[in-house]
Amino acid sequence: MLNEHDLTWYKDAVFYELYVRAFKDGNADGHGDLPGLLSQLDYLQELGVDCIWLLPICPSPLVDDGYDVSDYRGVHEDYGTLDDFKALVEGIHARGMRVIIDIVVNHTSDQHPWFLQARASKDSPLHDWYVWSDTPEKYREARIIFKDTESSNWAFDTLTGQYYWHRFYSQQPDLNYDNPAVQQEMLDILDFWLALGVDGFRVDAVPYLFEREGSNCENLPETHQYVKRMRAHMDANWPGRIMLAEANQWPEDVREYFGDGDEFHMAFHFPIMPRLYMALKQGTRRSIVEILQRTPGIPPLAQWCIFLRNHDELTLEMVTEEERQFMWEQYAPVPRMRLNLGIRRRLAPLLDDDPRRIRLLNALLFTLPGSPVLYYGDEIGMGDDIWLHDRNGVRTPMQWDASPNAGFSPADRLYEPVIADDVYGYQVRNVAQQRADPASLWHSTRHMLAVRKQHRAFGRGTFELALPENEAVLGFWRALEPEPGAAEDGERFLILVNLTDAPQRAALDLADWAGAQPLDVLNGESWPAVGGSAYKVELAPYAHHWLKF
Ligand code: GLC
Question: In degrees to the nearest 10, what's the CA dihedral of 171, 177, 181, 182?
């Protein structure tokens, strides 16, 4: 059962990001749905998931796969009903897990009744719920995010003869947060879902809520003011429920979204992600170290979310131009693999399906400071289909077994085809097969999660780099001091990884630990005791070790 007294559960939680349409079809119509997901909860529990994050589930014309909401108080008909949702939340909580949902605060669908009324006439009472202008000249400093599709952040509306503002697709008009009614309505929508039992929200596209001339219209003080209002509202009415920020920004800018502990509970660490991949190709830890050193401290109850992949392209917004070119050359040699400022591929294909590199990145995902977020299917190394529209190639049906349609659905036609190639196809790569094979990626992922959960230092501990001279080796400490008077001892881990394909030697200064006998908690092996001089280690290609001191 759910421990409702644990108000800081998100610090220890393992998150699993899941696309309902892709997970399991419960009514044989070719689309995954809430009852289907309900039927697979035991699987997620067995894997070690603590909190499920659902991509948008509200009614939507699906121009942006649900990130274009047309009704904030319902469930998309492909997914089921609000009653199905209640049953799902109950099922999740009954297993001691939690659920957060995506909430799209910045914009709606152009089919939302609000927008239909807003554009009906300039005098409509809802006109001012969106951002209008007579010319497309305002806010010129704001960048275009979907740059492969959109040429402007303004779209002309024939009914009003005005332009409306949109940071994403033109079918996603931005709400006007300068309007108090909009601010209030969004709080009411949060209440609606919180009353249904959700444990929080992944808040979509946070930096763009307000627009101001002369700025790039991101991270404005007004946006922070509103976030503080959301948080105060949550704290006053819904203790223990969380807000997670999607703010694809540099560390110092994301840091602001934690406020003084009065804004978001959590925020994704976007910049570290591409650097994990970069380090593998460069064979040095430099870029990882650089970004970690550039990451400011955060308030005590705040928490980072670390991820390797998600439902979008692997974003290269938070790298330099030179690094972006490098990443594209290395990881997206085929032009079709590129999308906007990123790469539309999944974890396993990005890493050439090399189990050593996949496990290495997982080992970092589970030990770097923050809570890890797994993307559905990556636990079995699912493949992608770059030829599908937009980002759909990383949103294909979950591969449960080798039966037709990967055990995802009995329907004749699916929302998108299952992956069926020789390497990643469902015939050879699926949950059933990997569960039966103790050496599979699924088992290693599950094992790492289980070990992580035995040690609170990974979710709550301090972080300190431990850098030997050899730059091919990344080392860092995670430590939790014993709480005064607590029964639990403190604990301290040294994480060591070899970022290269060759064996590496390194010498660490462990003088403070003379006499200690490190234990690798992943495989139970004891390491030589620490002596008086430098501690010499030899790491196998792509090795990763979690050493308990
Ligand atoms: C976020 C989502 C992305 C969506 C966009 C617009 O970046 O992750 O999928 O397209 O917001 O809502």
Answer: 40
